[in-house]
From TrEMBL:
Organism from which the protein derives: Lutibacter aestuarii
Pfam families named among the record's database cross-references: Beta_elim_lyase
Family under the similarity heading: Belongs to the beta-eliminating lyase family.
TM spans (from-to): none
UniProt-recorded name of the protein: Tryptophanase
Co-factor(s): pyridoxal 5'-phosphate
Domain Aromatic amino acid beta-eliminating lyase/threonine aldolase, first and last residues per copy: 47-423
CDD domains, A to Z: Tnase_like (cd00617)
Keywords from the named record: Lyase, Pyridoxal phosphate
Classification via SUPFAM superfamilies: PLP-dependent transferases
Length: 458
């Protein structure tokens, strides 16, 4: 008999989950103005709102927490992290920040000005927010295949070189401070970018003398996909692949709450001394002195260990294959999901799941609410609500995809939890005929509205 897969870790500490009834959840979600971000976590049974900062740390990381050096200047934990960042990414300079968007804020303060154009592959919402906040424009150059959830393509996060070159040709280079390549591409469904594509984007950038930066929140999961899917990389280690990918760029920002395997943290790493010097000033202003930049010493120590652990094959296999396990179950049940499966999340295709709910009534949000009400499962809308309004016309932007993301925390839930999620969705899918109306917005913020938006039921 072939042996089944088994996780390369065992559980040392557990946290109680709270069950609730459908009646309770109906009451709670109404009180939360139908915004899942407004729910207390003890009103959620399985929380797949995000994989950001929600993972379980290892015993080695917890041990590091105990020996964190909290010195204001010259912390040993900083030095430990700096060395690890250099070893893993190859970039010369390093600035810690309290999380990913802070890294964006600091780097973009040094590099992006009003009227600039920042091309990339489906920029993440905070990335786009920080670009638009500076009255610059993010241009999405992702390949067209990314926007059809039924097309199987091994690297749906790839940049379309023709689209990118068009942006380069139609704008003076002074207007393009850099290209941002997001690995894996979160907004396109946790889809990877190939080494081949990274290399080609890098060459095009060099030709037009435009720097290339990575938004590297899930760089390790990206490397796992490269090892599994890209010819010539089967026998390379994850650490070798990571180093090669980063070698094609000029720098990176990262939310360490993802592949850093910590609950809070982020950093900037880069090669250009001038940019580093400029960014250092902003880092001191916004984050803190250069040897902690918004992080505790103990957190920097835990991150150093986390970066090492997340770039090990056995960990990544358990991580990415758990997502695939859930995805396969859903496909088996006929539930429409984005394929191939992402590295950190499964994306439900609400356009196919609930086409009877008008887009103007936020059908993906309606599906996310239903999943909570029926199963106590908290996912998140990645559709019209998240896409926000056009900053100039103030009209709703309707993205190609209306998705509900089920982002799985790292090393946190078992496959039994995945089975529970899949069965809940099957039941919702089988009874979806009745879904005709969605929600209307009654209050929203001028930017990044999804966190605080309030709805009422139509
Ligand atoms: C999470 C994330 C960010 C922002 O990081 P925070 O730590 O949440 O501030 C930026 N880009 C990508 C791709 C992300 O996934």
């Amino acid at each position: 008999m072939e042996l089944p897969y088994a996780e390369p870790y065992k559980i040392k500490m557990v946290e109680q989950l709270k069950r609730s009834t459908k009646e309770q959840r109906l009451k709670w979600i109404k009180k939360a103005h139908y915004n899942l971000f407004n729910l207390d976590s003890d009103k959620v049974f399985i929380d797949v709102l995000t994989d950001s900062g929600t993972g379980a740390m290892s015993d080695k990381q917890w041990a590091e927490m105990m020996i964190g050096d909290e010195s204001y200047a010259g912390s040993k934990s900083f030095t430990k992290l700096k060395k690890t960042v250099k070893k893993i990414t190859g970039f010369k300079y390093f600035l810690p920040t309290h999380q990913g968007r802070a890294a964006e804020n600091v780097l973009f303060s040094a590099m992006v000005k009003e009227g600039d154009i920042v091309p990339g592959n489906s920029h993440f919402d905070t990335t786009k927010g920080h670009i638009e906040f500076r009255k610059a424009t993010a241009v999405d150059c992702t390949i067209d295949e990314a926007f059809d959830t039924s097309i199987i393509h091994p690297f749906k996060g790839n940049i379309d070189l023709n689209k990118l070159e068009k942006v380069f040709k139609s704008n003076p280079k002074e207007k393009i401070p850099f290209v941002i390549l997001t690995i894996t591409c979160n907004s396109a469904g946790g889809q990877p970018v190939s080494v081949q594509n990274t290399k080609e984007v890098s060459a095009l950038c060099k030709q037009y003398e435009i720097p290339l930066y990575f938004d590297a929140a899930r760089f390790a999961e990206n490397a796992y996909f490269i090892k599994k899917r890209e010819a010539g990389y089967e026998d390379k280690s994850i650490k070798e692949i990571v180093k090669e990918v980063f070698s094609y760029g000029d720098g990176m920002t990262i939310s360490a709450k993802k592949d850093g395997l910590v609950n809070m943290g982020g950093f900037i790493a880069l090669n250009n001394k001038e940019v580093f010097k400029k960014a250092t000033v902003f880092n001191i202003m916004y984050e803190g002195f250069i040897t902690y930049g918004g992080m505790n010493g103990r957190d920097m120590g835990a991150l150093a260990i986390g970066l090492d652990e997340s770039t090990e094959f056995n960990y990544l296999e358990s991580r990415v294959e758990q997502i695939a396990y859930l995805g396969k179950k859903l496909v088996e049940y006929g539930v429409p999901v984005q394929q191939p499966f992402g590295g950190h999340a499964i994306f439900l295709d609400a356009n196919k799941f609930v086409p009877t709910i008008p887009r103007e009534e936020y059908r993906a949000q309606a599906l996310a609410i239903e999943l909570y009400v029926v199963g106590g499962i908290r996912g998140v809308e990645i559709g019209t609500v998240l896409a926000d309004r056009d900053p100039f016309t103030r009209k709703n932007r309707y993205p190609d995809l209306e998705l509900v993301r089920l982002a799985i925390p790292r090393r946190t839930y078992t496959n039994n939890h995945m089975d529970y999620i899949a069965a809940t969705l099957k039941n919702i899918y089988d009874s979806r005929e009745g879904a005709k109306s969605g929600y209307r917005i009654i209050d929203e913020a001028p930017i990044m509205r999804h966190f605080t938006v309030k709805f009422e039921k139509i």
